[in-house]
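Model it.
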Amino acid sequence: MNGIRLFAVLAGTLVALAAPGSGSAASEGKVVIAQGVDPSSLDIMNQQETPASVVGEHIYNKLVERDQSLKIVPALAAELPKLISPQVWEVKLRKGVKFHNGEDFNADSAKFSLERVKDPKMRASSNFKLIQRVEIVDPYTVRVHTVKPWPTFIPSMNHPQAAMYPPKAYADKDTQYISKNPIGTGPYKYVRWSKDEEIVLEANENYYRGAPKIKTVVFRPIPDDAVRVAALQNGEIDVAVNIPPHLANIIANHPKLYLSTAPSVRTIQLMFSTHQFDTQNKLVGPYPGPAGDKRIRQAIAYALDVDEIIKGVLDGKGQRVATMLPSMHFGYDPSLKPIHQDLAKTKKLLAEAGSPNGIEIALNGPQKRSACLQPLQNGRWSKDRRLSRGQLDREWQAIQANTDLGDGRQDLIGELEGCPPRPGSLAEQHDRRDLARQFHVVELV
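Modeled.
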């Protein structure tokens, strides 16, 4: 492993909706949805972020999907894929489906899409690197050959990036072209995208499951949580997503608004860097910083009161889990239980590691995202000097410089709900185009 999880919290999804009524936008065939930020790309294979994935789910379809109970069911696959040998999955495809441009969905589409998404140039390729090649058996059957046995192939096909693309329209087209001309088989067709203002979609009247009831869907980016909630209260938007826990009760008690909550398979976690990798993701050796010592990692884990974080930061809207996998997830083991705060054990472990007076490491996380480091900004954690000392508003370039100098500033990485993965993190080696982002740094002492 190249990382150890510090703790995990299962967060519910909070979505607020305006109650439909006479004269509402929904009754006129139009729904306006507010997200926190605008997507970085609508080439859905070349991104790893929630805002783009949400828009993409309206435009594209995948081979499989989750139903309302989170069970994996067929989508563009006629039935769930079947394992016909240890390294070959056979997929029967749905017939009679057309892309928004009129192209037929068939085996050529599946081959083109799956072989493109595994291309290392795609930002989501790490999720599909076990795909070796796609064999066309007949016009509506493909066999996916993998580099080794892949028991989670079926749920992996539910990744948003596993969207099916039209091979003729996208032949030899680059990611910039696809982002500006998204074509799928989904319930909505792309109309226009005014960057940082709105994305407009229109109902696909030829959708294979039947035309959607809502004619027009508009996505608007509203970064500020309070402004997004105010827009909902004022009737400017119909749906607001990523509602922060502290604003949930305001919406729940509003006579004309409805708050929807649902369990999620997404976890919030902190990760330790324990090994070093080069730019090609090849193992170099153990991580030289404090987090390379197992006793230090355990000491930090025992220092945290996760139940208090759920209560005080998430306003009780979360559930403690022992690992990255909640109960609804494949591979969940109910015998594993979360650890509990034990400060005496923390001190003992620190002493054994040769740091009886404590250590100082950096916690890196994105700025201005839902659950990221906001608690440190409002002082809820920074008052406890046993755990944290806030050093806010540092720019990402400073972290980049520290990383390049190799001075050990990547010990602890926060990858929280709705936050993009950190460079060098377990999720991916970030694209250099993202280095202009501003981050907060918090030191643990």
